[in-house]
Amino acid sequence: MPSIEQLIKLSTALKVSPAELLPNQDDEIRQQLISLRSQLSLIGMKIDSPVILEKIIDHAKSLDPDLD
């Protein structure tokens, strides 16, 4: 994370508000989604049982019916 002085210099150079350079809640949620999807993908690749994979898929669909 840059210092306040660096943030002000950068925002001045880019002609934007310093607040625009800081991560917001949407950025944090997006990063969390990317991380969780990556983790889920890696775990899924390690599972060698079709039964377990089907259970995971069925459970995910029960949580969100739009996952077809």
UniProtKB/TrEMBL annotation:
Residues 2-21 form the HTH cro/C1-type domain. InterPro entries: Cro/C1-type_HTH. It comes from Pseudomonas cannabina. It comes from the Bacteria. This is Putative replication protein, RepA.
